[in-house]
Amino acid sequence: MRREPSPDDHDDRQLLARIAAGEQLALRCLMDRHVRGIRLFSTRYLGNVHDAEDVAQEVFVSVWKHARRFDPAAGRPSTWLYRIAANRCIDLLRWRRLRSFVGLEQVEETLFADEPGAGRIIGARQELAIVRAELARLPDRQRMALLLRAVADMDVPAIAEVMGTSAGSVEQLLVRARRALRNRLPQEDPGEDKEITA
Amino acid sequence: MNRQEFERLERRFGSEPSTWPAPHRQEAVIFLGIDESRSADSTLHRLILDVPEAPVDQAGFERAVFRRIAEQQRLPLLARLQAGLSALPVAASVAGIILIGAGLTGYSLAGRSVEMSDDLLLAFAVGEANADPFGLSLSDGGRP
User: Fold this and answer.
1) What is the ipTM, given to two decimal places?
2) Contact A95 B87 (CB under 8 A)
3) Does B41 sit within 8 Å of A178, measured CB to CB?
4) pTM for the predicted model, two decimal places
5) What is chain A's alpha carbon radius of gyration, rounded to the nearest angstrom?
6) What are the distances in angstroms from CA A167 to CA A76, A134, A173, A181?
7) Quick check: A129 contacting B, CB < 8 Å?
8) Among partner residues A24, A91, A121, which is closest to B52 by beta-carbon distance?
9) Neighbour count for residue B80 (Cβ, 10 Å)
10) DSSP code, position A143
11) How far apart are CA B59 and CA A135, in angstroms?
């Protein structure tokens, strides 16, 4: 199932065609459009801004090298970009876990420890802090599905395409991830807004 | 997102936020207050999106990307091939090849000697004069 191309798809397709022809300006434009999303997705998935920055750079290097391989008939440009990012993130996480397994890296210490000023900015916003902490605890595939939905604004078929799985499986992942996060959030008090009457 | 940032994005991506790339378009929708969905899911997505904005050096990012591209173009073919391969799968493949190689070598060597001893044992069993795999010939006083 394919979505109808949206105007931003059209822009991205044109940019990819120009990148395939070797135009650096087109790559700059594509970075300008998508770097924030790719960076945010990678940061939330990996929990580490430095690794996320590295992944984001690799994504656009890969786009430059392989833009000719992009098949407009096979999917949306943003789906292709996020698939590259997702694969890079998975590779990096596996590598990090292997290093942790052999004692070369302390994963827990690097996770979510170095986002600049995050703690200061979040401050008293308890919900944000909870969501971020719980995101890190979600199973990898649930976290990826949820981030592709929330950050990349993808629909279920596009997420399934990025993750190489079925739409039904993505729906299950999303349901479980949302339920896990919601269960951790403070429940709204139904009587909070009611007037107290004597 | 604030008014200033919204206007900056408007100049970059056009006046219609629905055509902006993600996550700018979701943020614009939230900023403009035109998000009609009040479901628990959309609230959750908003919380995930609500990121403390760290200062981003866009020009520095672009420079880093183009530097990497230039570095990779300078690499010789073999190094480029290595750079394109992830270390973990390569290590696993090499380990697998070594394991399979050792297995095949061991099997062929051991198999050959097993065949030899089978033949000798068979000859010994039927009483051939020259077959004495254990050096226990009666003539040599092998039996105690």
Assistant:
1) 0.73
2) yes
3) yes
4) 0.69
5) 19
6) 16, 24, 10, 21
7) no
8) A121
9) 14
10) H
11) 30
d(CA A62, CA A56): 10
B15's tokens: 């006046």
Residue pair B44/A150 in contact by the 8 Å Cβ criterion: yes
Quote the minimal CA–CA distance from B70 to chain A in Å: 10
Q: What is the pLDDT of residues A59-100, one digit of tens each?
A: 999 999 999 888 888 788 999 999 999 999 999 988 888 877
* B contact test, residue of A16, A30, A35 with most B CBs within 10 A: A35
Residue A76, SS3?
Answer: coil
B14: left (phi over 0), alpha (psi -120 to 50) or beta: left
Strand blocks (E) in chain A: none
Work out the widest C-alpha separation in chain A, in whole angstroms: 75
Give contacts of A91 with chain B, Cβ < 8 Å: 86, 88
More confident residue, B10 or A5: B10
Token output for A189: 């008090």
Asked if A177 contacts A143 with a C-beta cutoff of 8 angstroms, the reply is yes
Kindly state the tokens that stand for A72. 């407009």
What would the DSSP string read from start to end of chain B? --HHHHHHHHHHH-S-GGGSPTTHHHHHHHHHT------HHHHHHHHHH--------HHHHHHHHHHHHHHHHHS-HHHHHHHHS-HHHHHHHHHHHHHHHHHHHHHHHHHHHHHHHHHHHHHHHTT-TT--TTS--GGGT---
How far apart CA B132 and CA B121 sit, in angstroms, is: 8
Count A/B contacts: CB-CB distance under 8 Å: 102
